[in-house]
Amino acid sequence: MRLVALLLALILEVNAFAQGMQGGMYFAANGDLVINMPQSYIKKRETQLESPLLYEAGKKGLILFSGNKSFPFTQGYFNVETNLLEAIKDGKKQYYDPNIIEGFGFVSNDSLINLFIRVENPENNNKLVFMEVLSLGKLNLLLQRKFAYKKGDYNAGLASGNPDTFGTSLKYFTFIKGEKLLALNKNKNRILPLFENNSENVRSFADKLGYKFSNIPDLIEIFDYYNSLK
User: Fold this and answer.
1) Is the dihedral of CA 72, 74, 80, 84 positive or negative?
2) To bridge 135 with a disulfide, which of 38, 148, 216, 223 should be the other Cys (CB 3.0-4.6 Å)?
3) Domain positions in the chain
4) What confidence category does residue 80 fall into, taking pLDDT thresholds of 50, 70 and 90?
5) pTM score, two decimals?
């Protein structure tokens, strides 16, 4: 599957790009994709942005192209408002949209902290968009960020009113069977059937640790557990 190959290329490139990074991925004897990569980056996904840029100061990372090609950038930003990657290469800022590249990843302190892939959004006429990978495996959990700007009614002359405000809305999706993208309802009884024959195993795991399906950090742990099952 092309997506798997691209992710494999990314991990290999990141390992070369950041020698201290722990992680990797390989294929098991039964053909399942086994992923062992840092998961710490997925624990802070509820943070609201004060500007449309994810990592305003910029982060180094990698751009994924079709044909398993990739190249690193020294400083990059993900613009949530425009859904564009803004990357500085050879001293020049370049812009990449989902029609041009397959995805990208950011690296910090020798760890992969964010991985974005392009997907067709069925809620927007299957338009290609970048979404962030929160859990990867048999059942993928993705995050779509949208940046919202609300103009205020502040009157400088009267020194009254509300200022302009910024914020992000977060929406979650899953890949199910052949990369079909579905919006995720964060309800326990709606999510458990997604795990099919392992639904009871997942339920027991979540209950034992007190995980709530409505809480995203907990839900990521639940997806990671399911994706670790053989």
Assistant:
1) negative
2) 223
3) 2-131, 185-230
4) confident
5) 0.71
